[in-house]
């Protein structure tokens, strides 16, 4: 009943966002800027015992000269080209342990997990802004305009990471999958939108969408609390409200969704008070490629039981796993 009610409310919801007229031009320009960077990277061996996997720190120089670090985990004996997997982490966090990826290497993948600039991992953030640098990264650079937004750089980093993985001699560039949760889910969507050769996406309750709608909710306890912070301390009378939201439209993933060519599996908890279901439907409903939504009516922004089992076949080249009969 709960799922039916939510779907009735949001099944046709196309978001509160107002896509800028030059949105696609903005991102095409970013991709052109990215294409001018050499497709170079540095590998640094990491000594972790394993019978099946080799471990590396991988570094590349991204937009604006920032050094971005990834974990790269690949099979020891590379006798043939492997499928590639990109992984993106949650807000404020990092890529986790290297050994988290060994199970995917056992399935034959070469895995690249990116640390987002200036968050919990080792990637550097050299965003220089005049406005606030406190209380969140969505609003970092918003007062300077779209070109200065923190997430413009991170979004382009996802495409650069994908291109690097695809360029590796041992990786099958036509068989690339992407996955992540929350911020990682958003970046998985972004990666597939900016690098259309990505084949499959698993996105778990993605972040970074439908900022105007998110602002209508109780955002002081959600991942979007920095929107409230910005108005409280930078624009307490909302004199720049339209300018503020217009700038954020350039990093709203709902406007990138139509660019995706990959097959998408989307997991959502209907009690999510961190990345609200409405903000997720705004993106999902705009995806035009094959897609499926997996619904957890009693769950929120948390571990979703059986999801990993259900999508494993999809990622390794089979179908969505049915759990009927368990």
TrEMBL record:
Signal peptide: none annotated. Pfam families: AXE1. The lineage of its organism: Bacteria, Bacillati, Bacillota, Bacilli, Bacillales. It comes from Heyndrickxia camelliae. Substrate binds at residue 91. PANTHER family: CEPHALOSPORIN-C DEACETYLASE. It comes from the Bacteria. GO terms for molecular function: carboxylic ester hydrolase activity. GO terms for biological process: polysaccharide metabolic process. This is Acetylesterase.
